[in-house]
Structure formats: C-alpha cells, structure tokens
Fold:
Amino acid sequence: MPSRGIVEAFAKRLEDGDFIGAIEQFCTPDAVTYENNTAPTVGRDNLVAKERGVLAMSREVKAVRIGPSLIEGDNVATRWSFSFTNAEGVTRTLEEIAWQTWQGDQLIEERFFYDPKQLGR
Structure:
C-alpha cells in the first residue's frame, strides 16, 4: 500500500511537469498502463518512450489534480485535468480518472479513463 506521502510526491511531479521523472522514480521496471480500452503499454522504458512522444507533440503540457487522490489499500484513484498546447498555440484540455495499483511505494499498473472526444474540441 502506498503512503499518502508517496502518492502526493507522485502527483507533485506531474503537477510540476516532470512526467518522465515521475515514471522513472515511481514505476516498477515491468509497470503497465492502459489508455481506456486500448492495448497496454508494458515496461517502464516503453512508458518513458511513449511519454516522450506525447510531450514532443506539444509545446506545453500542464497537469492539474482535481480534488484529492483517494487511497484504498493498493489502489489509488485521482481525477486530473491535462492541458496540451500544440506548436500553433492551440490548447486542448482532457479530464481523466487515473486508476492505479501500487505495490508498496511503486506503481505497477495504471489505467486512464477519459472521453477521447475532449481532444477534438
């Protein structure tokens, strides 16, 4: 079960824009993420590569946590708002729920639930 301090430290890394650092520090080498119902991304190195790709498509990415992270045993749920600003200066906002499974202080699985139509607006 992750401590409140670890969950807060992870969230702060995201809010500070250090998305790569959050993955490197908190994810296990075999961590898995799922975007809605798509095929999983497996392994910390692949998670970092995928995140670098997302960041490369944006001039700026901002993460804002909406409310507290909820912790129950090894599970953590957090509501997020992400703003992506592209090279032309157009900003799109995506609100999502991140459902995480932790093993102690390490993140082993994360599932993101959101409506992809949000990015088309």
Summary: The mean pLDDT is 95. Strands lie at 27-35, 41-42, 60-65, 70-72, 75-85, 91-103, 106-114. The radius of gyration is 14 Å. Helices lie at 4-15, 19-26, 44-56.
